[in-house]
Specification:
The complex is a heterodimer. Chain A is built from 19 helices and 29 strands. By secondary structure, chain A is α+β, with helices and mostly antiparallel strands. Among the domains of chain A are: about 190 residues, Aldehyde oxidase/xanthine dehydrogenase, molybdopterin binding domain (Aldehyde Oxidoreductase, domain 4), CATH 3.30.365; about 160 residues, Aldehyde oxidase/xanthine dehydrogenase, molybdopterin binding domain (Aldehyde Oxidoreductase, domain 4, 2-Layer Sandwich), CATH 3.30.365. A 7-stranded mixed beta sheet of chain A has the order 3-5-1-12-9-10-11. In chain A, strands 7-15-14-13-8-29 form a 6-stranded mixed beta sheet, sandwiched between helices. Chain A has a 4-stranded mixed beta sheet with strand order 18-26-27-28, sandwiched between helices. In chain A, helix 14 runs parallel beside helix 15. Chain B is α+β, with helices and mostly antiparallel strands. In chain B, about 35% of the residues lie in helices and about 25% in strands. Chain B contains 12 helices and 14 strands. In chain B, helix 11 packs antiparallel against helix 12. Classes of the chains: A alpha+beta, B alpha+beta. Bound molecules: flavin-adenine dinucleotide (FAD).
Amino acid sequence: MRPRNVGAPIKRTEDPRLLTGRGEYSADRKPDRPLHIAFLRSGQPHARIARIDTAAAQTSPGVVAVFTAECITGDFKPVIPFSRMPNYYATPIVPLATGKVRYVGEAVAAIIATSRYLAEDALELIEVDYEPLGALARAELAVAGDAALLHEEAGTNVLIAREFKKGDVAADLKAAAVRVGGRFEMTRKAPLAMEPRSYTAEYDKRRDAITLYTSSNIPGIVRDAISESLDLPGHRLRVVAPDVGGSFGSKGSLYPEELLICIAARKLGRSLKWTADRLEDVSSSSQAFAEIVDAEMGFDANGVATSLQADVIGDVGAYSIYPWTCGLEPVQVVSFLPGPYKIASYRGAVRGVATCKPPTGPYRGVGRPISTFVAERLMDLGGKALGLDPLEIRRRNLVRAEEFPYRIASGIIWDKTGFVECLDAAAEAAGYEHLRVQQAAARKQGRLFGIGIASYAELTGIGSRIAVAPGMPINTGSETAKINIDSTGGVTAAFGVASHGQGLETTLAQIVADDLGARFEDVRVIQGDSDEVPMSTGTYASRSAVLGGGAAKHASRILQDKIKRVASHLLEANQDDIEVSDGKAAVIGTDRAVTFKQVAKAVYSDMKTLPVEAREELTATYTYDPINGTTAAATHIAVVEVDPATCFVKILKYVVAEDCGRIINPMIVDGQVHGGVAQGIGAALFEELIYDDDGQLLSASLVDYVIPSAPEVPAMDVIHIESESAVAGGFRGMGEGGTIGAPAAIANAIADALSPLGVDVSILPMTPERIFRLMEQARFNARGKADE
Amino acid sequence: MKPAKFEYVAPATVDAAVEALRAANGEGKVLAGGQSLLPLLNFRMTRPAVLVDLNGIKDLSFIELRGDRVAIGALTRHREIEQSPLIGSKLPVMAAAMRYVAHLAIRNRGTIGGSLSHADPAAELPMLSLFYGASLLVQGPSGRRTVAAEDFFVDALTNCLEPEEIVVEIEFPILQHDGWAFEEVARRFGDFALASIAVSVRRRASTIEDVRVAVMGVADTPLRLKEVEAKLRDIAIDNQTPDRFSGLVTSCVSANGDLHASAEYRHHLLGRLARRAMQTALATKG
Ligand SMILES: Cc1cc2nc3c(=O)[nH]c(=O)nc-3n(C[C@H](O)[C@H](O)[C@H](O)COP(=O)(O)OP(=O)(O)OC[C@H]3O[C@@H](n4cnc5c(N)ncnc54)[C@H](O)[C@@H]3O)c2cc1C
């Protein structure tokens, strides 16, 4: 059967409702007379809570209840972000600060009132006496022996330490013809979804049951965790992620507020609502990056990278997160640092250090934006030292087609992917040789014109053999599809994966339509609802096309077989002679056909047509596990010009050549790349959460936390290298890649532009201020040289 | 992020609005376009007891020529100024600057009276009011008075109004010039300026007869640089003039630093913008 929907640029079915304001987000739920929550958040970075006085708040107009940690101790069990990793301390997760506060923005008390306005009025009446314990504002200082401890029970501020080793790095570095290195940093970033975190808990008195509508991308994990914490079985706790306005990772962990709203709903027997305002979202949702990497790479005289070592310090914030742990982001930096390159020996050590900031968590690309930034800077530095063009040095080091599967020095195995093909395709599309000619001409005029390349590989669609986060106890390796045809012939496909902007409602329907033989527009996709499948985790780690798509394919095939069996009765033909497509089962080569509606009628309603034993319910469920997962790769090329007057960076050209395997919907793939690159531009040039030495967030509003807007994002060329993967459907995950490649490509382009000045790029974002300082440094150096 | 409780009144005349402010005993606040005030209310950084909404007052929105001046009503939206042919021909520097004011949606609501009263040190209209030497007509319980723009801006986000006073209209003298320029750098299109400069030049043959200069984004209030204007009067124009001008501007301004830009960087920017602006002003006619 030829695929007709998979591969086609079908417009997203979710867009008409989302673009016309008819979407339904958690905050749009309208339960009966809901109460509203406002949280009192700590203004202290690190302090003992000596006293909380809520008496005045309790009598404030409209207030129904005021909760502090003390009021709810018996109502839940703390959630432990467990991991089998050695050298890891799991900080318990509780709904409200208990005993002390550990970052500015941590929830200390909750007011529940008849409106959010009245709740916020009452917040001002709560008195808290804090005894300051001293802010731990920087990871480098928090590791010092005499630093105060954020979690006394841990005995250290280093919540996680880990080392990867292969070969004798020290010897190989010593033997290297050229060694390059540096201290690289990516500052703290906010994922900044357009919809802030938002929860509605609907209480069902009849059954003492709760339905939690949550802006989460892991509704299944949230269901299981709250069920455990509140001792509420899954059939009395339904968790639904309705339309979700972006996550980028910030809605991919269990949050204290999700626990609190369910506890309160149960305690008060009422439905409740809470939506973070922007300030709360920026200052209490999980954050990204915040890592410093000291790294060194050795090359032989031919430009082959032989050795790599790195020491990473990650500023993981105040708590470990559930279920990923605080190891997720920093450990991933060292596990992916060798990237798509055949580097023989490696040592990567990482420490995740607790500080007085919100926890870091998953962020689109996890670990790889910075590991790629570092590895790609080192490649360029190596090329420069050896007189090799950046394109050539990458060619000499990338894993080649005949070498897959390839185990890199950190232990990750890449399956067959077009690493070199992406590099070549990007170079060709960008007109690389001509760009170098253009650059030479620009330099003659004194212009700062730079070209940057970044190649990377990522692991996507991970199956049960690999843990998404190291040592984690939950299964992230499978997903279920449940497809049924009801008595009217309607096709409903239910999944546990939870789209929050990826367009899964469209792409999963494309797969079902092809593999079941339904019409695309007849397939309804349900996702993100814990009542629909027995177990699911959600959408994260570029897994849903591979796992959800794989499950969809298998379940569709099973159901199609059932349709064929029924149709063979109805059409009096051999099952093997029946083809199902376009919502019809037909005898091949004839015009004899029955529609899904007729098939359904025969099975469910019509008591005469089929023998009883042939009335098989038209449902199929399949749980798919890709076991290992699959690799995705890309090369990004950025061309920039730095304006020496304003110190601004203008992106003149941007090219991405990516291999995401078989493409389900090219329009959605392009959109994911565009969005990812836009965020990567944010990381490269604009976005930075700035905390001062007292742990106060200085860039807490969208005036001060600067994200790229439409004029700052250039048009880009996206080239697809479709090398099919070995998993069902040949898909690879691709939702995160744009964010991984862009910071490195832009950093290399800026470094290339500034190279006539003899300065280097080692920290992102490269704000105009930082470029100004680099140029000042260059002027200072030039003056020094002139004086010699 | 919800405002504290307030009372809301929507008077139909300026007199009634002033009366409402007087009755509020210093606890009243005027609402114009709301683009700056509403965030402050939501953050509870401002908590007026009474909000006096000017939007229902009919005769506060106009742009008209009055001899050698252009008068603009306080409730005139940024977008109306941006698109006004009268502003385009009589106050071209203002016309050029308006597209740098925020984003279209904000320009559709934001008003000139609100922008001046809000007194943001990096906002275009406050700087332009200094540049043109505008005067503000203000009404309070004891009647109307005129305040010169140079007396109006006291500090960052602080003007010289009494709590029960309202800006009613602003008059901008039409400048005679042979060339002018407006330059601005902001992090993103539509953001508040990191640094900005407005210049106009009147020349006699190849001598500068008169220069007008105002800058913003570098100090607690926008600044008109009269010292620079004086030093350039009657000097001969040559190809060193833009550099000389840039040197004069940077030597008489000591920039402030903040989260987005250090003092040194702003200073650097201002110097570069000044040079570029003078090059343009000397090259254009109009
Ligand atoms: C995202 C964003 C970006 C922006 N960028 C820019 C920019 O680049 N440049 C720029 O210039 N501005 C910018 N602004 C501000 C915008 O121009 C505002 O509209 C303007 O500063 C205030 O005008 P308003 O009519 O909205 O005043 P309001 O918000 O209604 O009021 C502001 C203040 O002025 C007082 N007030 C209002 N009218 C009067 C009056 N007639 N008499 C006395 N007091 C009065 C109010 O009481 C209040 O204190 C931006 C705003 C936003 C939200």
